[in-house]
Fold this sequence. Notes:
By secondary structure, the chain is mainly alpha-helical. It has one domain. It is built from 12 helices and no strands. It starts with a helix and ends with a helix.
Amino acid sequence: xxxxxxxxxFIIKHRLWKxxxxxxxxxxxxxxxxxxxxxxxSGEFVEYLFNLLxxxxxxxxxxxxxxxxxxxxxxxxxALYFSCYTPPFKYLFLIVGSPVFAYLSEKTExxxxxKDFPFSWKQLMEDIIRGIKLSFRNLLYQTVxxxxxxxxxxxxxxxxxTPLIALILESYYFGFSMMDYSFERRRWTMGQSINYIGQxxxxxxxxxxxxxxxxxxxxxGWIVAPCYAVIAATIHLQQQRLP
Length: 243
């Protein structure tokens, strides 16, 4: 998490703002469109679930306890729906922005190590294809886990911890994606990357958590958060002295 502070100093020192702003604006626009689309349909989706699952009698009992509590539960489910169904928009941007993120990660490591990495269109295409494969893999796993979390939300009392679980899952898989650019450069297989992240889950979660904290800042946070995340991940992995 401290690597984000180092990333900020690194960006200022080496004047990387142009590589932050351009993809950041694209991400910001995609985020706004995705948020509008998902949130606008959240109420209809929750209503559909209430009609599909045997929840109406329980909701009726809740209304006897208090309409405020029922409204809060409705808002809670809508928010959880939002967190479950935003991953496709996130991974869409990761796929679109993979060339820029790969370049940023490579440039960061080159500056730290005081060396240049030879540019190759062939290698760039291989890295992009690998990034797309990994994004689809993570999207599949995350979607399955988030669906289970969404079902868990309907269990009274226990369901109230599901937003925290959802945040940890989101952070883990996003941090994984940001760290994988360093693994690509070392020609690690996807299996090697998965094993390393499995042994260092805290790194991925920490990277993702700060990213989502930055996303709480409207517009500015949406623009700078993605590139800060990939630079922070690269700096931190350099400190780990990867082979």
